[in-house]
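Usage example:
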Amino acid sequence: MKKIVTIGGGTGSYTVLRGLKNYDDIEISAIVSMADDGGSTGVLRDELGVLPPGDVRQCLLALSLHGDTVRKLMGYRFEEGTLKGHTFGNILLAGLEKTAGSFVKGVEIASDILKIRGRVIPVTEDIACLVITLEDGTQVFGENNINHSDIQAVGVKKVSFKESVRINEHAKLVILEADLIVLGPGNFYCSLMPNLIVDGFKEAIKESKAKIVLPINLTNKKGHTLFFDASDYLNEIETILDKKVDYIFCNNELPSDEQVEMYKMEEGDGVMVLNDLLSDERLISVSVLSHEIVEQNKSDKVASARSYIRHDSTKIAEAIHNLL
Amino acid sequence: MKKIVTIGGGTGSYTVLRGLKNYDDIEISAIVSMADDGGSTGVLRDELGVLPPGDVRQCLLALSLHGDTVRKLMGYRFEEGTLKGHTFGNILLAGLEKTAGSFVKGVEIASDILKIRGRVIPVTEDIACLVITLEDGTQVFGENNINHSDIQAVGVKKVSFKESVRINEHAKLVILEADLIVLGPGNFYCSLMPNLIVDGFKEAIKESKAKIVLPINLTNKKGHTLFFDASDYLNEIETILDKKVDYIFCNNELPSDEQVEMYKMEEGDGVMVLNDLLSDERLISVSVLSHEIVEQNKSDKVASARSYIRHDSTKIAEAIHNLL
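Running the assembly step on the lines above writes:
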């Protein structure tokens, strides 16, 4: 059995894992960022002092072999009363952390209850408050805050944590034993980076003999990575990790004019165009664009815009599996 | 496989089911009262418009084959923030009712998630507001309210629902197909009665060929059934059901002086003494007293007092199983 490790946290990881789940000849470990502090997750962190459940919940969901109802339950957001705004899956993970004694142990029990294929591993068990230091010395604290800030106008000098955050030993172990490590795709500063900068992470990557694949995002994020080329993502990541990646996925299928127009209306000029790295021998041109129509989320226009142009979980999983 | 149906809702049903779960040669169906409206259950009923999850949760817990951590999770009560006071298992059932489309469907999914042996069946899917009409015409509304009222001083004239409540077809079916029906033990007016008075319940019992066993409570409830003899329980139940029960369990093991003293300190003079029915040929003298020491619940003195004198789940399950 080949061992695949994904690194991420948000929708990107969800998409990749949902596809990988269908291959019986691999062992999947999903390493998940612990920096989330927005929405229901943020409230639970503040009020109960638990680790952030949101990203872990999404990865568990992606890997669950349960039917639609359990998946709907996990993502269900209560609409009234004192529970209003809370997502059921987050409450489950918070309750498990309280009763099992630790977040990691709680995630293991949730994995059993949800019948998941593979493992979901928080990148750290420490409290992780993400900090972006801008070129002018200003600091932006907290992932949710950063996610909604224009950090690109001044420019990002450094991505770090408020207090040092140590890699979870389970995460280290699966990185060391992996055959293939998938970096993303996903929100660059808010999902991928908060894994890469954890103390001990790059050392584990360095020591690992696994091949590394970087699927380049399909779109750039306004205020974060607008006008990034594939090489910009690549360079930033290789600098942080102090190691070369082995494969780079670039999507070769252009979105339709309609997809681009719809996207632009909400999120601006963020659609990635593959205009460099063409001569890089590590580049693998793949067709991974989704054509599925997604139900739009009226309360979150940016999420809706992003959903116009996104990865197809079957296609990206196949491209990853082909590397083994 | 012999089919056993329990009728109840609270701690009594929990105790019986926990013991019955260990017999592989029976099919267990737990019919559960839907009148609960106190605590976390009451808040969820009011705020989310869901059916009361509390009693169902306890029965699911009793029948779950999961380990301690999942059982602890189901009963875990959040202590801080917006979730304060809510029991996790209640939130689970509320979320399932919302996402599965009905409470009964939600309970089925919870049964799958919790790996339960047997079935838990809400006695009705209708909204059930319990009403006690006293001898002077006064009415007391709501189970939680009734539970904390002295309804015995004036005397109970009638137990009913505010609006008529129809038996759930699944409940009817298991009653019709049962080999043995267990009425209680448990809170007489607040757990047992709210099942018996559901429209269609007594008709189902009448039509069923099942034997009926009535385990007489170990204690009487202050303000409700104080000084009740075994025959008082029996007569009330047989009048409501318009049918004779087949067996009556009376505990033959006296609690220790210490148990009685501890009990009296909180709950008064409620310890049942078997002083009648001795010549009734349906009487089965059983030794079903628990000697296990229970951790006391400081926030609920009455629950604590009751826990001094209670059924042993292994012993009562064995006595029930012996009837088959």
